[in-house]
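Standup, Tuesday
Yesterday: got the pipeline producing structure tokens again.
Today: sanity-check two examples.
Blockers: none.

Example 1:
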Amino acid sequence: MFCFDKENDMGKFVPFIVRSEDAQRIDVKIRRMNRSDAKQTEKEPVWQTSWMSDYMQDAAFEKYALKTAEGELVALAAYEILENDVMVHITYIESQPESNPTIVGRTKKYQGIGRVLIAYGIKLSIDHECGGTVTFEAKVPELAEHYVRDYGASPLPSFGGAPRYELSGEAAMKVFVTYLK
């Protein structure tokens, strides 16, 4: 568990992604998802998941949009604040079709989308006094390996479902401080 002093503003969360074609750092904003963001997932190019579905519209999820300064929707994320369990569960993260490796293969428009949205989950965890702990599932084995190797995530019991992971303590801090200024 680590602390982030919001009152003394020891650091400001400044999210960014990287444009693949030229490795240019792109500052982004993370704001509450609105209906037009969700509707965009059903327009061409169609996203993997309709964020207009009943599941994604569940009021239990806090949903956020990741956008460039120009307003380009880069990704959407859904989080559950589990204060009784002292953690934030990252329910779902999805990148725009041009940056989603399961849609475009290896040539993605932007890099670092998942990392910044995991860091935002850590921020939500800190803001809700959950100590920076987040949990999430890995959709595919390559993601599971990536979470352990690159983020230091720890496996959790999955009870027959998708592999589950926790990011907390020093490992969560290393991801989070990437975005502090």
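Example 2:
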Amino acid sequence: MAILMETTCPQRPAACSPDETEAFEAARSSFDVLKGEITAVGVPLSADSLRESKLDELGAQAVVHNWIRAAEADCSRTIRVCYLGRLWLLSEADQAARTLPACRLDDSAEGPCWTDKRAMIRDIDRQVSPLKHRLLDEEAWPVSDVWGASASTAAWLLVQHSDAEPDFQQAALSKLLQAETLPRDERRHAAYLMDRVAVAANEPQWFGTQGACRGSTWEALPVRDPEGLEGRRGRLALGAMTDYARTAASICTN
């Protein structure tokens, strides 16, 4: 429900049209009923609750597949509610695929845990791909000052994790950069995506957001104009490179 609550309509009710107000209230009511029904039978509603549920691999995949099927269904409400709901479902499926099962970095890359994780990511990405294309083709980029921060972040995650589709990433980046305004979060999203596209093309990145573990240390992949790196990061509120590398190193030890 958070992804709906963050839209400008519920934040500024006086600006809502009657249709928007009716659709939002119907969506909130339906969501509360659905949440109660699902919670009663113990079915997780998000990637975080799915991890905490301790379901086995087959059970977890069944939940994620249900999210995707729900995103495929025709919407009976306005496009805003439909769009937000689908973004939420697909982004939660994307996150679940990448966090389940919880493998350790020191597990064998060819061992059962990482093998199962890679298979789950491929399976979920294959199912999500046509839906995310449809969503991002039918609307302009869902900037946070119109659609809410959760919607913008969900769209960015879906694109950021589309490494097998570099043309889609480039097209989505172009759409993001064409937005009339780019709030702070979107500027940061654009930086990450620019780096992702550059690395995929075997080119130096701009902002140093992409890197790899070297033992317990995280190191950025090659950066163009290294002397100007801190200035570029500062203009987008990305923080100092040393701090970023220290935070990123957490993935190298867990």
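Quick observation on example 2: The first strand starts at residue 211 and ends at 214. The chain has a mean pLDDT of 84.
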